[in-house]
Design brief:
alpha+beta, elongated
């Protein structure tokens, strides 16, 4: 009876795996979303995420070596000091050299970890020579993106209902499709300044970008991104911000500079703003911090 149950479970798992492998591919490739049977981090799409992945790999090596070392010590202690081999326990209670070693070695390990950690923290904190600034504001429960360098217009981004998603953006996974994405040019340093309204904190997080900024009412946090490939990228609010927390997806559309300039001109026209005389030159002048 037990064997039949085990075989049934194994058969079910094999069938599920086969279904996942044989699932039809999406009609249009969407970048920056989880995929079936995916392991590890998503591919890095920004220099920050590349460094995050590199630091993760270093920490994985360190923690693996520590775990193997401790395991060997435990196995040796069980073999060497069990009651059969040591009917009379030793009375040694101190070993000065050993105590110095297990104090100094962890300190050195922490220093090895701290140096690249602080470098990454300062590297990702402030944008240098940003070509574009976008103010991200978290509301209850949607996002808005303000472009102060491009005429100071604002785009509001809300999650699409399932019916609207299936009708207008079927290639985007459910609960991630939004009516208006944040649009940025490719290979451009974009300063992200974030805040929140409505009395709740939110988390503007896009895993493939290596950015997770907690936006707080009354405060401004800063970060930056520079995406190296055109496409659609997605994230979600990473703070438990209230009733509709799970319905605050983040959509980022990365386009060429020419398409971005055209999109800016269309948005300014729709907002009733005077057309810029030179959009390209305006895009190179960051907003005053």
């Amino acid at each position: 009876m037990v064997v039949k149950r085990v075989l049934g479970v194994v058969g079910l798992l094999v069938a599920m795996a086969g279904f996942g492998i044989a699932a039809p591919a999406q009609a249009q490739k969407v970048i920056g979303v989880p995929h079936d049977w995916q392991l590890n981090f998503p591919p890095p799409y920004t220099p920050i995420m590349e460094r995050v992945e590199s630091l993760h790999d270093l920490l994985l090596v360190i923690i693996t070596l520590i775990c193997v070392f401790v395991l060997l010590l435990l196995v040796y202690a069980v073999w060497r000091f069990h009651a059969g081999r040591n009917p009379t326990p030793a009375t040694v209670t101190h070993n000065t050299l050993l105590e110095i070693a297990w104090t100094i070695i962890p300190i050195l390990i922490l220093v090895v970890i701290a140096i690249p950690s602080f470098r990454l923290l300062y590297y990702s904190d402030k944008a240098t020579e940003a070509a574009l600034t976008i103010k991200v504001t978290g509301h209850q429960w949607y996002w808005s993106y303000n472009y102060p360098d491009q005429g100071d217009f604002t785009v509001e981004s809300r999650m699409l209902s399932e019916a609207d998603r299936a009708k207008t953006k079927p290639q985007v996974p459910r609960l991630l499709a939004v009516d208006e994405e944040m649009v940025i040019p490719v290979n451009t340093v974009v300063r992200i300044v974030g805040t929140a309204e409505g009395g709740s904190m939110h988390g503007w997080t896009v895993p493939g970008f290596g950015i997770k900024k907690t936006v707080i009412p009354g405060r401004i946090n800063e970060g930056w991104i520079s995406v190296k490939e055109e496409g659609l990228y997605f994230g979600q609010c990473s703070q438990i911000c209230g009733q509709n927390h799970s319905f605050m997806p983040i959509g980022v559309r990365v386009v060429s500079q020419a398409d971005f300039d055209k999109w800016v001109a269309d948005k300014k026209k729709a907002a009733g703003l005077a057309p810029a005389t030179d959009i390209a030159s305006a895009a190179t002048t960051p907003a005053t911090r």
